[in-house]
Write a structure and sequence with these properties.
- The structure is a single chain.
- Among the domains are: 43 residues, no CATH class; 151 residues, Glycoside hydrolase, family 3, N-terminal domain (TIM Barrel), CATH 3.20.20.300; 144 residues, Jelly Rolls (Sandwich); 118 residues, Immunoglobulin-like (Sandwich), CATH 2.60.40.10.
- The protein has 20 helices and 40 strands.
- Strand 20 and strand 21 form a beta hairpin.
Length: 868
C-alpha cells in the first residue's frame, strides 16, 4: 500500500496536468476521495484554503463548493436542529450494558441525520447543526462524579466506554460497505479531560502517570481510532503536561498520528485555540497567529472558533508554510468527498432515506426500549416494587415528576412529544387514583408551581417565538417556532436558541395568552442575559432592557379565573453569553409537614427527585449551594429534597424514590429509609412510560451501574487530581473504601444463579484467546435479563487496578429456565500496563477471572488462568 506522501505527490502531478479540463477530476465521482480532494485543493487560492479551516466554512462559487458548517451534534439523538427523536442520555445508554442495542439506536440516529441533511440542502440551508459531521461520542472517563458533563460519557470504566463508543461510531458512520460514508463521528475530548468545568480553559493536567494515561485515559481513544476508524478526533480545552491539547505534540503527533496511524480530521473544541493566548487562560502563546500556526503544525486541521482567521498573518510572518496548510485542507476536503457532499443525490444511496423517519414510530419504540433497559433498581426493601395496578391511590411528587425538559438532558433535539413520569404513572392506573403534589423544587426552600401549561397560542400550549439576527427585532425573520415548555435557553456550549439564529447579536419576541384556572396571585419570573421586557395586556410589567449578566426579575399580579391575559416577551442578546428563563406560576415557602399531610392517605408515595441539566452540565453559571459552573461541590442529594422525603416517610406509607440525574449521589440516608430506589438517569422522550413500566412490573429492570455510587463526598479525592490510585483511589478499579452501590450493581424482580464457569483452556500464549462458558438459571417467577460481567485481575501487578471489566453480556432468561452463556476473552482482554517498559502489553503470568452480576468481590466467583 502506498504511503500518504507517495499518493500526495502522485496526485499533485495528476491534478496539475488536468487543471484546465472542462470536467475537472474533482467533479468525477468515479475517482477516489483522495484524487478528488487533491485536484480541488490545487485549484484553490491560499485565502480560500484558510477559509476552509473554520467550522463554518464559506462556499467557493467559482468552483461550485457549497458552504458547510462542520458543527453538528448527536449525543443521544440529532440535536439542535428542530424535531428529532430524543433517546436516553449517554450515561443511561451505558447503564444498558447492551452495545448491540446502542449500535441499532445510532443507526436510527444517523438515518434521521441523513434525512435532515438532504432536506436542509434542498432548501439551501447550510448553517450550523445541519451537516453530517457529528461531534460525538464523548469517551472521556467519568473519573469523578462531581463533573457536570459526566452524563455525556459512558461511565468510569475504559472497557465499557470503548464498547459503547465503538457502537456509536459504527452506527453513525455505517459499516464501510457503501461507496459513501453515512456520516462522520468524532471521538472527544482528547485527552485527559473530565472536569472541573470552572477552570477548563486554564487547567493543566500534569504529573499524570504513564500508567494512568495508557491504562485509563487513552484506551477508548485508541480503540475508536484503530478499530472503529473514527473520522474525527476533537482535542480538548485543557493543557496536558504544560502544552494545550490542541497543539500537544505528544498527544497529536507522537501518539495519535505516529503510533495509532490516524490520518483524518482533528478539530479543536470550540474556542480552544483562543485559550492559548487569552489572558487568564493558558497564556502559552503570544497571539492568535502564533497559536493558530502551532495548532495546525501539530495537526489540528479545523478550528471551531475565530482564531484561524489569523493564519494569513501567520503565513506572512513565516510561522507556517502553504505545504502545512495543504495537508490540513486536503483532509478536510477528502472527508466531504467521502460523505458524497459534492455529488448528486441520485449517486448517494443515503439520500433515499425519507424525512418521515424523523420521530417515526419505530424510533420512538427504540427510545422506549433504551429507556427501559437503562433503568437501575438500586434497592427494593421487602419487595415494595413492583406496585400493584389495583392500588387505590398513589401520590406522585418531586421536582422531576412533571418535567419533560429534564428527560431530554443536554445536547438534545426536540421531540414531537414527551411522556413525563407523572403522565407515565397516570397511564397505568384508573382516572382519579393518582394525586400530584410537587412538594419542592431541586434546591430552593421555596417551591415554584408552574402554570406554563395554561399559556396558549392559537390553541397550542406555550408561546409563539420569532427571532431576528439583529438586536432590534426588525428586518428579515431568522426563525419561528412554538415554545411548549418554560423557557430555559442558554448559549453555553455554543447552543443556539433555535436553528437559524445567531449565537450573539440576535433578538426575539414571544407571544401567548395566559388563562388562569383560579382567581389568585401569580408571579411572572424572568432572567435574561442580556435585555428583556415583559408585557401583560400591553402594559410593561418588567423592564430590564440593557446589557448585563442574568438576574432574576419577578412581578406579582392578581389574576381572575378564566380571564384571558395577552403575554408579550421581548429579548435581545448583546454579546458574550446569551440566556433566557421565563415561567409563570406560584412561589411559596415549603411547609414539609403540611405537604406530607396532603398525601398521607395515599397507599404509596412516589417521589421523583434528583437534579437536572439545568443544574449540572457544561460550564454553567449555576449559583446554588452544592453546585459550581455545572459541576457539583458535593454529591449529596439537595437538602430540601431530603427534608421532603423525611416528612413523607413520617406518614408511615411506603415511599419510592425515583432518582433522575446524570451521575451518582451519596444516598446513605435514602438507602436506609426509602422503601425502594430506582435510578432513572435522564431517560429521553419516552422516559415517563419506561419508569412507570418498571414501577408497576410491566418491565423487569436490568440496568447496571456504569459508575460507583460512593457513600459520602468524603470518599472522593481532590477534584483536580487526575491520578487514579492516590488517597482512597478513584472508580471501582482503584477505590479502597466501601461503595454504597458498586459498579455493575442493579437489582431485578427475579433471581439468577450461576453454575461454575469453565474456561476453554487452562493456559494460553500471549497471542491466544480463551472463552468462558457457564449456565445461567432464572430462579424466580418473572422473565428477566441478567448482565453477566467478567473481570480480570492481573496478579503480577500489585500497583495496578484491583480488577478490570473485560467482558459482559446482557442475557434474557425466562422464569425457571436455564440458558448457556459464552463470553469470549481475546488476548487483548489480558492487556495491562507494564511498568518496566511503560507500555500496555499481554504479559506471561497468572491471572484471576472473576464473574457474576456485579463488581462486588463478595458476589463474584473466580477462576485462574496462566499465560505462558
Amino acid at each position: 500500500m502506498k504511503s500518504k506522501k507517495v499518493i500526495l505527490f502522485t496526485l499533485l502531478f495528476f491534478s496539475a496536468f488536468s487543471f484546465r479540463a472542462e470536467n475537472p477530476p474533482y467533479k468525477n465521482p468515479e475517482l477516489s476521495p483522495d484524487e478528488r480532494a487533491l485536484d480541488l485543493l490545487n485549484r484553490m487560492t491560499l485565502k480560500e484554503k484558510f477559509a476552509q479551516m473554520h467550522n463554518n466554512t464559506g462556499g467557493i462559487e467559482r468552483l461550485g463548493v457549497r458552504p458547510y458548517d462542520w458543527w453538528n451534534e448527536a449525543l443521544h439523538g440529532i440535536a439542535r436542529a428542530g424535531k428529532a427523536t430524543v433517546f436516553p442520555q449517554a450515561i443511561g445508554l451505558a447503564a444498558t450494558f447492551d452495545d448491540t442495542a446502542v449500535y441499532e439506536m445510532f443507526d436510527m440516529v444517523s438515518d434521521e441525520g441523513r434525512a435532515k441533511y438532504h432536506d436542509f440542502q434542498r432548501k439551501g440551508m447550510y448553517n450550523g447543526y445541519k451537516g453530517l459531521t457529528f461531534w460525538t461520542p464523548n469517551i472521556n472517563i467519568f473519573r469523578d462524579p462531581r463533573w457536570g458533563r459526566g452524563m455525556e460519557t459512558y461511565g468510569e470504566d475504559p472497557f465499557l466506554t470503548t464498547k459503547m463508543g465503538l457502537a456509536v461510531v459504527k452506527g453513525l458512520q455505517g459499516d464501510g460497505t457503501q461507496k459513501y460514508d453515512k456520516a462522520h463521528a468524532c471521538a472527544k475530548h482528547y485527552a485527559v479531560h473530565s472536569g472541573p468545568e470552572w477552570n477548563r480553559h486554564s487547567y493543566n493536567a500534569e504529573n499524570i502517570s504513564i500508567r494512568d494515561l495508557r491504562e485509563t485515559y487513552l484506551p477508548a481513544f485508541k480503540a475508536l481510532v484503530t478499530e472503529g476508524k473514527v473520522k474525527e478526533v476533537m482535542c480538548a480545552y485543557n493543557r496536558f503536561e504544560g502544552e494545550p491539547c490542541c497543539s500537544n505534540k505528544t498527544l497529536l503527533i507522537n501518539i495519535l498520528k505516529d503510533e495509532w496511524g490516524f490520518d483524518d480530521v482533528i478539530v479543536s473544541d470550540c474556542g480552544a485555540i483562543a485559550d492559548f493566548y487569552t489572558k487568564g487562560r493558558h497564556e502559552t502563546h503570544a497571539s492568535a497567529a502564533d497559536a493558530s500556526a502551532d495548532a495546525v503544525i501539530s495537526g489540528t486541521d479545523l478550528e471551531c472558533g475565530g482564531s484561524y482567521w489569523a493564519l494569513d498573518e501567520a503565513f506572512e510572518k513565516g510561522l507556517i508554510t502553504e505545504t502545512k496548510i495543504n495537508e490540513s485542507v486536503f483532509r478536510l476536503l477528502r472527508a466531504r468527498f467521502e460523505l458524497g457532499m459534492f455529488d448528486d443525490d441520485s449517486l448517494v444511496s443515503w439520500s433515499s432515506i425519507p424525512y418521515s423517519v424523523v420521530c417515526c414510530d419505530k424510533h420512538k419504540a427504540k427510545a422506549l426500549e433504551m429507556a427501559r433497559k437503562s433503568m437501575v433498581l438500586l434497592s427494593n426493601k421487602n419487595n415494595t416494587l413492583p406496585l400493584s395496578k389495583s392500588i387505590k391511590k398513589v401520590a406522585v411528587m418531586g421536582p422531576n415528576a412533571n418535567d419533560s425538559v429534564m428527560l431530554w438532558a443536554n445536547y438534545n433535539g426536540t421531540p414531537d412529544r414527551s411522556v413525563t413520569i407523572l403522565e407515565g404513572i397516570k397511564a397505568k392506573l384508573p382516572e382519579g387514583s393518582v394525586i400530584y403534589e410537587k412538594g419542592c423544587d431541586y434546591v430552593d426552600t421555596e417551591v415554584f408551581l408552574s402554570y406554563f401549561d395554561r399559556c396558549q397560542y392559537n390553541g397550542k400550549k406555550g408561546f409563539k417565538a420569532t427571532f431576528w439576527n439583529n438586536r432590534d427585532l426588525s428586518g428579515d425573520i431568522a426563525a419561528t417556532g412554538q415554545i411548549s415548555e418554560p423557557f430555559n435557553f442558554d448559549t453555553g456550549g455554543e447552543t443556539v436558541f433555535m436553528p437559524g439564529v445567531n449565537l450573539k447579536d440576535f433578538s426575539a419576541r414571544f407571544e401567548s395568552v395566559f388563562i388562569p384556572e383560579r382567581t389568585e396571585e401569580v408571579v411572572f419570573t424572568i432572567s435574561a442575559d442580556d435585555g428583556c421586557r415583559v408585557y401583560v395586556d400591553g402594559k410593561e410589567i418588567i423592564s430590564d432592557w440593557k446589557n448585563g449578566p442574568a438576574s432574576r426579575k419577578d412581578y406579582r399580579m392578581n389574576v381572575e379565573k378564566g380571564k384571558k391575559y395577552d403575554i408579550l416577551i421581548e429579548y435581545y442578546q448583546g454579546g458574550g453569553k446569551g440566556a433566557l428563563k421565563f415561567d409563570v406560576g406560584l412561589s411559596r415557602q415549603i411547609d414539609y409537614k403540611a405537604v406530607a399531610e396532603k398525601v398521607k392517605d395515599a397507599d404509596a408515595i412516589i417521589f421523583v427527585g434528583g437534579i437536572s441539566s439545568s443544574l449540572e452540565g457544561e460550564e454553567m453559571g449555576v449559583k446554588y449551594p452544592g453546585f459550581k459552573n455545572g459541576d457539583r461541590t458535593n454529591i449529596d442529594l439537595p437538602q430540601v429534597q431530603k427534608n421532603m422525603m423525611k416528612a413523607l416517610k413520617e406518614t408511615g406509607k411506603p415511599v419510592i424514590f425515583v432518582l433522575c440525574s446524570g451521575s451518582t449521589m451519596a444516598l446513605s440516608w435514602e438507602d436506609k429509609n426509602m422503601d425502594a430506589i430506582l435510578q432513572a438517569w435522564y431517560p429521553g422522550q419516552e422516559g415517563g412510560t419506561a419508569v412507570a413500566d418498571v414501577l408497576f412490573g410491566d418491565y423487569n429492570p436490568a440496568g447496571r451501574l456504569p459508575l460507583t455510587f460512593y457513600a459520602s463526598s468524603d470518599d472522593l479525592p481532590d477534584f483536580e487530581n487526575y491520578n487514579m490510585s492516590e488517597g482512597q483511589g478513584r472508580t471501582y478499579r482503584y477505590f479502597k473504601g466501601k461503595p454504597l452501590y458498586p459498579f455493575g450493581h442493579g437489582l431485578s424482580y427475579t433471581g439468577f444463579s450461576y453454575s461454575k464457569a469453565k474456561l476453554s483452556k487452562k493456559s494460553m500464549s500471549v497471542n491466544d484467546s480463551v472463552f468462558l462458558s457457564l449456565n445461567l438459571k432464572n430462579t424466580g417467577l418473572r422473565d428477566g435479563d441478567e448482565v453477566v460481567q467478567v473481570y480480570i485481575r492481573n496478579l503480577q501487578d500489585p500497583e495496578g487496578p484491583s480488577k478490570s471489566l473485560r467482558g459482559y453480556k446482557r442475557v434474557s432468561v425466562k422464569a425457571g429456565q436455564t440458558v448457556p452463556v459464552k463470553i469470549d476473552l481475546p488476548a487483548s482482554s489480558f492487556e495491562f500496563f507494564n511498568p518496566v517498559i511503560e507500555k500496555m502489553e499481554v504479559r506471561p503470568g497468572k491471572y484471576e477471572i472473576l464473574y457474576g452480576g456485579t463488581s462486588d468481590d463478595k458476589q463474584l466467583k473466580k477462576l485462574g488462568l496462566e499465560i505462558k
